[in-house]
Amino acid sequence: MIGVISFVSILMFGCIKQPSTVSTKVQPSPGSITDSDNKPLPEKETTSVISLAKILSAHDDTGCQELPFRTEEPWLELNVIVNEIPQPPWAGIRAATCMIELYPEASKDLFMAWMVDEHKKGLAYLLASNIDRIPIDIALSLVQVALAGPHAQGCTDRFMDSERSDIRNALP
Q1: What sections of 103-151 are H helices per DSSP?
Q2: Are 93 and 121 in contact (CB under 8 A)?
Q3: pLDDT tens for residues 94-119?
Q4: DSSP state letters, 64-79
Q5: pTM of the model
């Protein structure tokens, strides 16, 4: 009976998506996306963010290197997606992962903020799990901030898995 109900709900609600489809939930309009100061982004930046959000929302594995950035500060475009595009949830995680992979130096202050924001637990854990991909000076700063933040225990558990002895030695 459960199988029939699941099959019917799939038919009714269209829960199965084909690979490389884009979520229809990513439909912000120019002027509706704001920066960290809650000011509307200029149209060029908004268009770029919408384009990136659609790509990151797709079910394919477009790599971070393949993203078509259109501004001089692409880490800020990615951060807008992290903070302003709630659906699908993987779009923000993929954007955050690209920030870690491509722009760790430029994103340092944003990363620090994620570590201390009680509402950014998932992002803090993502950073902690990827600490070995971040330059060591930034990584050690993140460890110190995380240890004093609201996600200290969960981050510490992830830092313990680091391949870098400097990271593990920084733990209490």
Answers
A1: 108-116, 121-129, 136-147
A2: no
A3: 999 999 999 999 999 999 999 999 99
A4: GGG----SS-HHHHHH
A5: 0.71
